[in-house]
Amino acid sequence: MAIGSLARRKTTTILSSRYLYSTSKYSFSLSRNYSSGSDENDVVVIGGGPGGYVAAIKAAQLGLKTTCIEKRGTLGGTCLNVGCIPSKALLHSSHMYHEAQHSFASHGVKFSSVEVDLPAMMGQKDKAVANLTRGIEGLFKKNKVNYVKGYGKFLSPSEVSVDTVEGGNTVVKGKNIIIATGSDVKSLPGLTIDEKRIVSSTGALALTEVPKKLVVIGAGYIGLEMGSVWGRLGSEVTVVEFGPDIVPAMDGEVRKQFQRSLEKQKMKFMLKTKVVSVETVGNGVKLTLEPAAGGDQTTLEADVVLVSAGRIPFTSGLGLDKIGVETDKAGRILVNERFVTNVPGVHAIGDVIPGPMLAHKAEEDGVACVEFIAGKEGHVDYDLVPGVVYTHPEVASVGKTEEQVKALGVDYRVGKFPFLANSRAKAIDDAEGIVKVLAEKETDKILGVHIMSPNAGELIHEAVLALHYGASSEDIARTCHAHPTMSEALKEAAMATYDKPIHI
Hints:
By secondary structure, the protein is an alpha/beta fold. It has 14 helices and 21 strands. The chain has three domains: 41-184 and 313-374, 3-Layer(bba) Sandwich (FAD/NAD(P)-binding domain); 198-309, 3-Layer(bba) Sandwich (FAD/NAD(P)-binding domain), CATH 3.50.50.60; 393-498, Enolase-like, domain 1, CATH 3.30.390. The strands form five sheets. The chain has a five-stranded mixed beta barrel with strand order 1-2-3-4-5. Strands 7-14-8-9-10 form a five-stranded parallel beta sheet. It is globular.
């Protein structure tokens, strides 16, 4: 057993070149207590999203005079305002409706009819967002973070000009400035997003009626999640993907099971398909398609088209060129292991730098960056950032896929356990899914864990902790898990990795 490894604590910062898909976003600028030009901050954060607001709070907790600039007028960035949080609210609400339609009767809960009140559903989503954004403002007050509402741009490496939401301008000075402006929707050539018929994820979260036919361009996290929402509410959903697979970063075996699950939910897939054009026609939208490898064109009609082809760093209007901050070909800001750009005193975190474009990764960046500024040690291991698709079932993973392990030439073992053999899953009649564990053959050290199940996003964190401390599959297998719980499936998969499971 690798129990001794659990006592080790990592203190160095590790940055890797592995990138994942994301749902986090940007922020920028604007609000309440204005900094005058004569006030110099220890830290100025441009952007109040998951990376920015967390960095600001952590800096203040470490005793640094801190100002956060945010353009929206509300904190939380894309994630909280038009991303992670509202999408999860709608995923939950739509799942409740779908369960009421299809599952309640088998549990002895019967009623004559069930219907969707879309305005009420949207209202619940908006209430959750409003409460959380106010909560962050409360944390700013508690920690004495100065909050400026406005669009910030560099005047110099130590000065940010802010056009405030109230129509004025102020200059915020800082010894250290952190760029935390997140990412924006990646569009397609010749395509205009109007947020009515041709929508981004933002528009998909605010539709006023359930579209009869919804076409999703892109089979990544966001596209599948939003497709699930509207599919449950009654839309005919077709996903068009240029590549050969959905969610390409996912473990291949799990991905295939996941796609079959979505297809059982009546989601249709057109893989290896290129979108040539998208145009509004009357009250609908017409897409012209062709095979990715070339061939005859076809057309597809829809009421709404969701463009979900990925995200790009958001640095527009920031003035990076004015102060000479270097970026790569993808527009990402280049930083060293301490999140410092080539310009001394200017730092960058989150979606604007290389690494997984995920809200929780941005938070970790923010904490580590500020710890370095304060003279402490920070730590982010991008290879151990969990990824979750919040459909039903959910899919969550951490570490390496089987394809990646093979490519590295590592001898490994695989342990799998289906939720059909899990007592809790069977008891609640929600047993679709699997746990898959990959471990190095010689040492039994866990290399990756992949889970498809209800609440996989919660179950994955035992595996995240195990990988952080170099645990073996036997470590998990010999750890007592409460019965009956879904987490026992991970224990059994770990048993299958180094020896044999009990319940299958």
